[in-house]
Specification:
Elements: H1 3-17, E1 21-27, H2 29-43, E2 50-53, E3 61-63, E4 76-82, H3 89-95, E5 99-109, H4 121-126, H5 139-150, E6 154-159, E7 165-169, H6 196-200, H7 205-214, E8 222-228, H8 234-247, E9 251-255, H9 259-275, E10 280-282, E11 289-292, E12 299-302, H10 305-308, E13 317-320, H11 328-333, E14 339-345, E15 347-348, E16 351-352, H12 353-366, E17 370-376, H13 387-396, H14 405-408, E18 417-421, H15 423-428, H16 430-443, H17 449-457, E19 461-469, E20 476-488, H18 492-499, H19 508-516, E21 526-535, H20 544-556, E22 562-568, H21 571-579, E23 583-591, E24 598-605, H22 608-629, H23 638-646, H24 658-669, H25 678-692, H26 704-715, H27 720-727, H28 732-750, H29 753-763
Parallel strand pairs: 1-5, 1-6, 2-3, 2-4, 4-5, 8-14, 8-17, 9-12, 9-13, 13-14, 21-22
Antiparallel strand pairs: 6-7, 10-11, 11-12, 15-16, 18-19, 19-20, 20-21, 22-24, 23-24
Length: about 775
């Protein structure tokens, strides 16, 4: 067969089955472009319906590689991806779903045998100083080539500058004829409340069923969960429902990690309202707000997640699209909405639906909402069983998941084995790779195909795991996993560049300590940052996370200076890391846009060099954290602040004069007022929290409510009425008296002779 014959046969088979086919053109870049021209002509693909993702020329729409996300949510007869100038796994994940059923996905790339040894811009990002590009391996590329050569529906044609073509695989699956479904058109629900136009806009029976389920959002106290694999029309169904609710006068707030993720919601909502003959105003094309012009107040509008979680304008309904890509703490805030829908991709570039299910479903079940669950299984853009979808899932591990519960159930710290998973080990064992990566997907609200390449090729990364032999299979299964990044040990010129504001790849902890906290020597010691750690959901709270961290510490104690971690701070996580020997040295002053959390940085020194680094930053943090809490961190969760300060290992010098102590003691035991001298109260509160977390501290002498009072009023400086309302006091006066009571045990513990004398005036 010739290339033209292969391309024509692939297209014919794709159209006959409503599936896609993948054509790989491998060889010289210019020869690949010429071959692509011939293939497109032979296949009959419309150039107007073709998009090239690359920098070459192909007489069709062209999108730059860094703008590949523009194809998310779109459909094209053919997508051509040029992997010569750069090869980014994320780009493959973004664009593969845009190829429509009956169409082609074409990849242009160097000769397959040479491809694993090529390095492009993406590989540069894996060369984290002090390592260089020469240290970056090609394991992901080698595995990628292997999937191309193994999967059905993938044609491979080698081309050269002279125009010679070698057909390595024709990619034809020669499927059995499909039964006609022409007489199986979806039926409209009999008991529908949304207008008929909403159901006429649905493309599958699955979509009709989901839109019908979303009618529940017409009633307060309802939460809906919509799950689907990519390409099933989840966002379209949400958009149809949003448009129908707006047509009834509802104020519909839509949010997603990025607007592009929810673009289809607005496109479909606008189309429905137009089909209903409703006059609307929009703020652009595609719109971020659609407003009805009839005075009913109906509208559909977009806000970023952290802003949307505040429920601006008191919306009637909230749609959270790609919910799996948001943190649990942020998702919980949306449960304050009267009506809310969470839509998430189960397997795909956009997020990890299994993580959403494991990490958030319990919170949802405990809420006051009546929960409606629905899902879409039938593909819209192509037929079920599409071989290109199966290839993408395998090549990018979009469907990676932990082992089934049965093989890890009952695992304990004593029944597992600590393992070093080298990249070659993972590459050689697909089951271990899928299980380890599947657990890492659950550990973070956004894990992308690029992360798989980093796992296999980045020289600064390491994977450690706890495994257990399966009771029936006999093979090892991953119970817990940690992804570790080596940082520090930076040369003087890199440290100077960092200190002066330059960006250095990786090295997150040295970067923050150097550039933000002005410590030019922070990059000298070498350490290991725990990027992610995950324990199988079936055996959480069994001590396995701590067992894994202890094993990591034991392995690296003689080779490195410190262990560290950075993460979105929650009370539970702060407590977990503190109990495992990590101590806080910084809390970011801005919230993460996606998680909505402030980020905590913590260190666990392994030797004298690590201790010097930790001690000076802990000391500096203790000296400035009170002023941070009074200004940029005034809105930090009081329970986060309580656990954060307990995680600081530094001396707190009270530095109080006799007059200061008389003011504090008089407020605790007599008629004194906090408002007359806030500073000494802050110093005492800070010392209480820091010492209550150390080994020398006794049990905290204050209740949780009293500690929240210290945080909200004394450290963050909120007005008395607001503090009283938040903490459940009947009045500001009662709140003031409670603060005095809270300081009694603190005066007794820390007070000097002046404090004791002042106390006796009112107690003797």
């Amino acid at each position: 067969m010739t290339l033209a014959e292969v391309a024509a046969a692939l297209r014919e088979e794709a159209r006959a089955t409503d599936e896609r086919r993948l054509l790989v053109l491998a060889g010289d870049r210019d020869a690949c472009y010429r071959a692509a021209d011939r293939a497109l002509d032979a296949s009959g693909v419309e150039r107007a319906a073709t998009t090239l993702v690359g920098t070459g020329s192909l007489d069709c729409e062209r999108v730059g590689p860094k703008r590949a996300d523009r194809l998310l949510g779109t459909t094209r007869e053919c997508v051509v991806l040029d992997c010569h100038a750069d090869f980014r796994p994320n780009a493959v994940g973004r664009v593969v779903g845009a190829a429509d059923g009956g169409g082609l996905f074409v990849i242009l790339m160097p000769a397959l045998d040479e491809f694993p040894d090529r390095r492009t811009d993406f590989d540069e990002t894996l060369a984290v100083p002090p390592v260089t590009l020469g240290d970056v391996t090609g394991r992901f590329r080698r595995r990628f080539v292997g999937t191309l050569r193994a999967h059905p529906g993938v044609a491979i044609v080698s081309v050269d500058e002279g125009g010679e073509e070698t057909i390595e695989r024709d990619g034809l699956t020669r499927p059995a004829p499909r039964l006609s479904t022409a007489d199986e058109a979806p039926r409209l629900p009999d008991d529908r409340a949304f207008p008929d136009a909403a159901y006429d806009a649905c493309l599958t029976g699955d979509q009709i069923a989901v839109v019908r389920d979303l009618e529940a959002l017409r009633e307060d106290g309802t939460a809906a969960v919509v799950e689907a694999d990519r390409g099933r029309g989840k966002s379209s169904a949400a958009g149809i429902a949003a448009g129908a609710l707006a047509a009834e006068g509802g104020d519909v707030l839509v949010t997603a990690p990025e607007y592009r993720s929810s673009r289809e919601v607005f496109v479909r909502a606008a189309a429905l309202l137009e089909s209903l003959g409703r006059e609307v105003e929009t703020d652009g094309d595609p719109p971020r707000e659609i407003r009805l012009c009839d005075g009913t107040g109906g509208r559909v509008r977009f806000e970023k997640p952290t802003a949307a979680a505040d429920l601006p304008g008191d919306p009637d309904v909230v749609f959270v699209d790609e919910a799996a890509a948001l943190s649990v703490r942020l998702l919980e805030r949306f449960l304050d909405a009267r009506r809310v829908a969470f839509a998430t991709t189960v397997h795909g570039y956009e997020g990890a639906g299994r993580g959403f299910a494991v990490r958030f479903r319990d919170r949802l079940a405990e809420s006051d909402h009546e929960v409606v669950e629905t899902r879409l299984d039938e593909p819209i853009r192509y037929a079920a069983g599409d071989p290109v979808e199966a290839w993408a899932f395998r090549a990018l591990l979009l469907d990676a998941r932990p082992p089934v519960e049965g093989v890890v159930a009952g695992a304990t710290p004593d029944s597992v084995e600590y393992r070093d998973f080298s990249p070659d080990d993972l590459l050689a064992d697909e089951t271990l790779l899928r299980e380890a990566f599947g657990l890492l997907v659950l550990a973070h609200y956004r894990t992308e195909p690029d992360d798989l390449a980093r796992l296999l090729d980045a020289p600064n990364l390491a994977v450690r795991a706890l495994v257990r032999e399966g009771p029936a299979t006999g093979g090892d299964h991953v119970v817990a996993v940690a992804l570790l990044a080596r940082e520090g040990n930076l040369p003087a010129d890199v440290r100077e560049h960092m200190y002066e504001g330059g960006r250095v790849r990786g090295n997150m902890l040295p970067d923050v300590l150097t550039s933000q906290l002005r410590d030019e020597e922070a990059g000298v010691p070498e350490g290991l940052r725990v990027m992610r750690i995950a324990v199988h959901h079936a055996v959480r709270s069994s001590g396995l996370g701590s067992r894994l961290l202890a094993a990591v510490r034991g392995e690296f104690a003689d080779d490195l200076d410190w262990l560290g971690v950075g993460y979105g701070a929650t009370p539970e996580l702060l407590r977990f890391w503190r109990e495992n020997g990590y101590r806080a040295v910084q809390l970011s002053t801005t919230r993460n846009d996606t998680s909505g959390e402030y980020s905590a940085l913590m260190l666990d020194p392994l030797n004298g060099k690590g201790a010097d680094l930790h001690d000076r930053h802990a000391r500096w943090f203790a000296s400035r954290v009170a002023s941070m809490l009074a200004d940029p961190l005034r809105d930090a969760d009081p329970d986060v602040v309580r656990e954060l300060l307990r995680s600081v290992d530094a001396e707190v010098d009270l530095d109080l004069s006799p007059w200061d102590w008389r003011a504090v003691a008089a407020s605790a035991y007599g008629p004194g007022l906090y408002d007359a001298a806030p500073r000494p109260f802050r110093r005492v509160a800070l010392k209480h929290f820091v010492e209550s977390g150390g080994s020398a501290g006794a049990d905290p002498p204050l209740s949780a409510r009293e500690e929240r009072l210290l945080v909200r009023k004394v450290l963050q400086g909120h007005p008395w009425p607001r503090v009283a309302d938040e903490l459940g006091f009947h009045s500001a006066g009662q709140c003031m008296r409670a603060l005095g009571d809270a300081y009694e045990p603190l005066v007794d513990r820390y007070g000097d002779e002046s404090a004791v004398a002042e106390k006796r005036r009112y107690t003797d």
